[in-house]
Automatic annotation (TrEMBL):
One Gene Ontology CC term in the entry: membrane
Residue ranges constituting the OmpA-like domain according to the UniProt record: 266-362
Listed InterPro entries: Autotransporte_beta_dom_sf, OmpA-like, OmpA-like_sf
Keywords per UniProt: Membrane, Signal
Residues spanning the signal sequence: 1-19
Record's keyword annotation contains Signal: yes
Protein name (record): OmpA family protein
Organism, scientific name: Hallella mizrahii
Pfam families, sorted: OmpA
């Protein structure tokens, strides 16, 4: 027992050491759907290769963190082997609620996108239903053993692929228990009285499947890592913004031309009319601080938006990223009733541009 607690403590320490801060998920983020199929056979009491039972299933799941998730899976079994025929095309249906644990991310840390290969144990409880007539009369009572509580223990060997790792193929060996199963009572005299894991009331299964991970609110199909900033970085960023404000105050005509179109001659462009939104390197999603700054723009106001990028990366990447930043700001402002006259990306703009979007409020 002492060794068990030691191993558990070591696992928790490893998980904590490899933990990463990921972007907060919205309700419908990190959802996937997939299909699987394979063969199953009774664990005991028959020759495995002579009693193979084909099955097909559907799985829908969600990852709440890069390590932990839940999935609902339902599999239909088509053969009666090694049991007596039920007279139906589908003999058995098993529907389970499964917990999923990504061991690769737990012990290796999440690096911003899935690995090409991952190991994911799955385990949970379910409901099993046998089709056909399965009542048995014993003495003066009728026993109905068409329904029973099930439990699945398995492990997925998963391969992620696609341009954004949005697809995943996996091979899954598993063992499935009938916890209160009495279906063998007549043929094998192996009643499973009560609720227990009994290998004589289980079947082993080998399935292969593929899942598709839907696109998230962060623009990818997986979790994004949020870069943690220490106080020194925050102070430096605030200093950069203040320096930029000072420079704009001293030379409004020269600098504003770089980020917004020339205002009408009768209208003076003031620093107070500009809202600055900062972004993480290589990202275009809005932070809580950015949204707070944009909330100051009142509904009904007309604005022009220019997104910019820092010098890292190619011109093509920076142009695309700056436009994405301008579009994200425009989308948020439109939801608040602000009229967006123009939202453009200008890539890298001089030496004062540092992953920002500038909103000119008219």
């Amino acid at each position: 027992m002492k060794k068990l607690f030691t191993l558990m403590a070591a696992a928790l320490i490893a998980a904590g050491a490899s933990a990463q801060t990921v972007q907060e998920s919205k309700t419908f983020d990190n959802i996937y759907v997939g299909v699987n199929g394979g063969v199953a056979t009774k664990t005991t009491g028959n020759a495995w290769l002579k009693g193979l039972n084909p099955n097909f299933g559907v799985r829908v799941g969600r990852w709440f963190t890069p390590v932990f998730g839940l999935a609902v899976e339902s599999n239909a079994y088509f053969s009666n082997k090694p049991f007596a025929s039920t007279g139906t095309a589908v003999r058995f249906l098993n529907t389970s609620l499964l917990g999923t644990v990504n061991l690769s991310n737990w012990f290796g840390g999440y690096k911003g996108e899935p690995r090409s290969f991952e190991v994911i144990p799955v385990a949970g409880l379910g409901w099993g239903h046998i089709f056909g007539h399965n009542n048995e009369r014993v003495g003066s009572k009728d026993f109905d053993y068409r329904n029973n509580l099930t439990s699945k223990l398995g492990i997925d060997f998963a391969f992620n692929f696609g341009s954004q790792k949005q697809w995943q193929a996996y091979v899954e060996p598993s063992i499935n228990y009938g916890l209160n199963d009495n279906t063998d009572r007549v043929n094998y005299n192996l009643s499973n009285a009560g609720m227990k894991y009994n290998i004589n009331h289980s079947y082993v299964q080998l399935n292969a499947g593929v899942v598709y991970k839907f696109k998230n609110s962060n623009g990818t199909h997986n979790f994004n890592i949020v870069k943690p900033y220490d106080q020194a970085e925050i102070d430096q960023l605030n200093s950069t913004i203040n320096d930029l404000r000072d420079e704009l105050a001293k030379k409004p005509k020269e600098i504003v031309k770089e980020v917004v179109k020339e205002a009408p001659a009768s209208q003076e462009v003031k620093v107070e009319n500009l809202v600055f939104v900062t972004f993480a390197q290589g990202k275009s999603f809005l932070t809580k601080e950015a949204k707070k700054a944009l909330d100051a723009v009142k509904s009904g106001k007309h604005v022009q938006i220019v997104g910019t990028a820092s010098p890292e990366g190619s011109k093509e990447v920076n142009d695309r990223l700056s436009q994405a930043r301008a579009d994200e700001v425009a989308k948020y402002l439109k939801k608040n009733g602000v009229v967006v006259d123009e939202a453009i990306g200008k890539g890298v703009q001089g030496t004062t541009s540092n992953r920002i979007a500038v909103v000119y409020v008219k």
